[in-house]
Write a structure and sequence with these properties.
single chain, 73 residues, 2 helices, 0% strand, transmembrane
């Protein structure tokens, strides 16, 4: 079992709060854009959901790639 050391352990809670705020803000932005473009169109809603899911998958794959590059102590 490895332990992590943080350069600024006093800011861990701040970083977690900022990450949660960014997640909520991103969801609100996507909902706003969806509301602008998707008046009463089911195919447009489906395509918007597909694009959002594709971006989420790409972000997860990128995070996994970065995690593999980290050397294990």
């Amino acid at each position: 079992m490895t332990t992590c050391t943080f350069p600024r352990p006093d800011l861990v809670g701040t970083a977690a709060g900022l990450a949660a705020a960014m997640r909520i803000g991103g969801g609100a932005l996507i909902a706003f854009i969806a509301g602008l473009f998707l008046a009463d169109s089911a195919p447009a809603l489906l395509s918007m959901m597909l694009v959002s899911a594709a971006f989420a998958l790409l972000a997860a794959l990128y995070a996994a790639l970065l995690d593999r590059r980290q050397p294990v102590d």
